[in-house]
Amino acid sequence: MDLNDLAPRNGEWLRGDGSDADIVISSRVRLARNLADFPFCSRADEAQRRDIENKLRTSIGDVHGDQSLIFFDVGRLDDLDRQFLVERQLISRELASGQGSRSVAIAPREDVSLMVNEEDHLRLQVLHSGYSVRQCWETVNKLDDLVEERVTFAFSEEFGYLTACPTNVGTGMRASVMLHLPALSMTKQIDRVFRALQKIQLAVRGLYGEGSQASGDFYQISNNITLGKTEDAIISNIEVVVPTIVNYERTARRSLIKENKQTLHDRVSRAYGILQAAQTISSEETMALLSSVRMGVNLNLIDDVRIDLINDLFIHTQPAHLQKLEGRPLEGEDRNIARASYLRKRLSEIHRTKPPTDSQAN
Amino acid sequence: MPDFPVDLAELRCPDCGTTFLDFRRTGKLGCPYDYVVFRDGLIPLLDRVQRSQHHTGKKPLRASEVVEAHSPVRALRFQLRQAIESEEYQQAAKIRDLIRAREKQNGSE
Fold this sequence. Notes:
The complex is a heterodimer of chains A (about 350) and B (about 110). Chain A is α+β, with helices and mostly antiparallel strands and about 350 residues long.
């Protein structure tokens, strides 16, 4: 498989199905593991990193059953390819920008990604579209069992799975759910929700994890605590919270419609209009406008565009994806021009088969 | 200023060479064995960050031997030997005190 073959598809995390898929974009569970007889990555020299890589590569090659994994030597990929994998949520920014031998094994469906020599020797990730965090845990748990049959992980009875950073020690598990919360953002209720989450030890991050902004009103909610709770308890904590937030978002959308339909409809329509007509547009503005349009489609305020197309555009207008789809490197203003042109093209295609309808009457 | 005893700051893992101070600077440990060597410094930190000191989740089918095979005192003895070999007598004295304190705490060893 070539990375270029992935570009036209939209990957697992934005496939757009699963329960509550209008609000819950995707679910993910990752486990951090280290080999017992090596130093952690930051202390390993290049020879040790290569040993770790070889050892893990032979151990994880066939853990995914008949769906064989595809390996990428991340150290040898160029910047564009690395950025591309980050945009698809298949590798972390840390792995992309790291040094020395490091790699990733990806399932063709893009629901499994195993990172080698990131902060820890092995990070197993399972990612599903929609709300299925428990299913992700079950899958990643099985993968972990299989790898464990072949290697010895660093573990202590007292502290559990030992990780390079003590914030991951114990279960080594980070379970997260990505939510699209435009109405809570718009009505400024989002900070209150986040404060409540922090009190129960859940973290909120933007689209691309730690330190990234909540662009496109996408928010990742994940457990802060990895020690002293079972994996099941961590998942349950998230399962309690997510339906509540989904309900808040739905309530916020309903009250926007009820109290301010004109304003909301205007905002959504203008966003749609700009995306169809702009001649140059940044990634950040695109995300913000697509977020409004996505909500507009889910609320039937826009009826001539399908949600999958909007999901597609979220990923295809990211810098590395755009360059892959255009087949040439694009910098700065050229990239913004190409993005605007790509958006106009994709959004005009929907009208070719079907005449534009007047957006629905109030 | 560091909020932990100087003895702890200078503690060095015999397996990977990381000191506790290195860890406090970078937030990253050097090897699995650091959890044994820096145990006393890690526990208050885990208490604060993780609100727990004990793992209760999944266990591997086989426990790793690297960590289980070492006891904190054994690790300190290893360091003591190294310190003496490199003629760092001040450091050696500190480690000896740590060993004594630990042995007292454990009853006998």
